[in-house]
Amino acid sequence: MKTGWCMVLIMIFLAGADITQADEDFKLYKKAKKETFNKKWDAAIENYRELMMKYPDSRYADDAHFWISYVFENKGELLKAFDEYQAMIVKSPSSVWVDDALIHQISIAEEFVKNGQNRYRKFLRSMLTHDIKNVRYQAAISLGKLRDDQAAPVLQEIADNGDQELSSLAESLIENLEESSNSGKSRRRSDMKIEIQEKKPEPETPQESRGIFGSLIPETRRMKIYEQLRKKGNTWTDLELTAYGLWHILPEAEFNDFIILQTDYDKREWLRKFWKKWDPTPTTDVNERKDEFLRRIYYAHSKYGQEWNYRQFNYLKKQYMRDGWSMAPWDSRGELYIKYGEPDFKDASRAFQKEIWTYHRFNVDFVVKPYVTNIYGNAIEAGPVSKRLYQNYESYIDAEYIYKSDFKFEPFNDIEPVKHFDLELFVENHQNNNRTMNATYEISGKEFHFRNTGGFFQAAIRQNYAVYDEDLNEVSHGTKDVQLTASSEKEAKEKLRRKINFTFEAPAGYYTFSIRLQDLNSRRLGIFMKEFQIE
Fold it and tell me: What is the DSSP annotation of 248-317?
C-alpha cells in the first residue's frame, strides 16, 4: 500500500527537507499535495488536473489521478470519487495505486448499497475473485456486513488464515449470514424491498462513508496499525502513549507519516515540528494544545487503563481480552476522552455493561462499552439523544464523531478573537546574509478597547512576533507593548497601520512569520501567520 507513504512528501515539504528536483511536473505535484494537506480541495484538484494535462507521461500522473479521487472522497462527493478511481485503474492498470483505489471503491460501494443503490452490490461481488488478497478480503467483509451469502467462501478463507483478529471478525460475519439464512422468508421480503428501492431516485450519498470501521480507512490497514501499536502488559512509555493517542486524533495519512519512522529520535523530531504547527500561541513558550493532549492521554491511561478481571465474569473477561483490550493503554472510554475531553454528563449505572456519555457542548451523546476497545467498531454507538436528534441521519454521528479522527479543544473560550487583520511582509537583503524584515499590519480600531484619557483615546496592545525556518526552528522573535492613540473616537475606529522592523541572519529558504496581538484593556486576542520566501 502506498497511501500512507506518499503523504510523507507533504510533511517533508512542510518540515523543510532539501528538495532539489526542479522539474515542473514535480513542482505542480508538490503544490497540489500541500493544498491537499491544507484541505484546499478545489485548488488541489485544479493543480492535479493541470499536471495530468500538461505532463501526461509524467511519473506523477497516476499519483495525481489517485489523489483527485481521494480529494473528491474527502469532499463527500463519493460518486465522483468512485468514478475517478475507476478511471485511474483503467488508465494506469500497472500503477502501484491500483489496490488502494479498489479498496476505496469497495468502501464507497458498501455505503451506496446501504443507502439502497443495489447496483453496486454487483461490483462488490466481482471483487471476491480478485487476485489481490487485501482487495478480496475487503470485498468479502463489506458483503458480509450487507448479509450477502456470496461472501461466505472468502469469509471462511479469512477465518482460516491464522490472523486472530481478522478471523474473529470473519467468524462473526459468517454467524450473521447463517442467522439470515434461517429466516429465509423475511430475508426474501427484505431483498424485494431493496429491489423496489432501486427503482426510486438514488438518495444523496453521505458526506462521509462509514466503510468497514466507520471511515474510508480500509480495515486491513487499520488492523496493521493496531498491531504495530499494541503491546502486552502495562509498561507503556510516554512515546508509546503519545503514538496511541495520535492514532485517535490524526487522519490516517498524517499518522502514517509518524508511525513509519524507525528511531525514537526521528519520532521526537517529528513531534517537535508537529506540535509547533499545532501551537495556538506560537509566539509564546506555552503550547496549550500539546499540554491538553498530554494531560488527556495520561488521564485516559490512569482512569481507563485498568483491566477488569472479576472472576465471576470470566467468560466476558476473555471476550474483552480477545477484543484486544489487554494490549491497549485504554478502552473505548479513553478514546472518547482523548478526542472530546470530559463529558458533561456520565451515566455509569449499568456498571460493566455500558455507560452513556453526553456532551451538551457538542450536542451529541454515546453509548460506550467499558473495558473494550473500538477496534472492531462495536464499542461506541450513538446514544439515545443523538438517535432522536438525528433519527434520519444516524450515519452522521458515525462519520463526524465516532469514527472521525478529531481533537476537540478550544483554548480561548473566554477570548474575543481579532478578526480584521491585513499583513504585508517585505525582506531586504544585505551583505553577510543579514536581512532586514519589514512586517506591516493594518487593523481596525473597532477591534480594540480605547480609553478616553483627557480628550485622547488610547489602546494598549502587546505585540509578540516570531519567525520560523522550514524545520520550524525559531530564528527571530520579539515582544513590545505599544500604545495606539487617536484624537477622536471616530479616528480610533478607523484603520490603524503599524510597522515592525527587525534583522536576522538566515539562508535562502521558506519561513513562517507569526504575530500575536493582545489587547491589554480587554479580552481581545489575535494570532496570525504568514509564509514567505528568501531567495
Answer: HHS-HHHHHHHHT--SHHHHHHHHHHHHHHH-SSTTSS--HHHHHHHHHHHHHHHHS-PPP--GGGHHHH
Let me know the angle formed at the C-alpha of 327 by 322 and 333, rounded to the nearest 5 degrees.
90
CA distances 401 to 78, 278, 295, 341, 407, Å, are 19, 21, 21, 13, 10
d(CA 146, CA 174): 11
3-state secondary structure of 450: coil
**What residue type is 127 in one-letter code?**
M
The residue with cell 480477545 is 322
- What residue has cell string 454521528? 397
Q: Indicate the Cα dihedral angle 134, 137, 142, 148, nearest 10°.
A: 150
Please choose, from the candidates 503, 523, 530, 349, the residue with its C-alpha nearest in 3D space to the C-alpha of residue 448.
523
Q: Which residue do the cell numbers 503523504 mark?
A: 7
Task: For residue 288, give every residue at least 6 positions away whose Cβ sits within 8 Å of its Cβ, in sequence order, or none.
Answer: 279, 280, 281, 409, 411
Instruction: Using DSSP, state whether 260 is helix, strand or coil.
Output: coil
**pLDDT tens-digit profile of 226-269?**
777 877 666 788 888 999 999 999 988 888 888 888 888 888 88
Per-residue DSSP letter, 138: H
Exposure on the CB side of residue 507, measured as CA atoms within 13 A: 4
Residues facing residue 533 across a β-bridge: 510
**Model confidence, pTM:** 0.52
Three cell numbers written together for 251:
487522519
**What digits encode the pLDDT tens for the residues 123-155?**
899 999 888 888 888 898 889 888 888 888 888
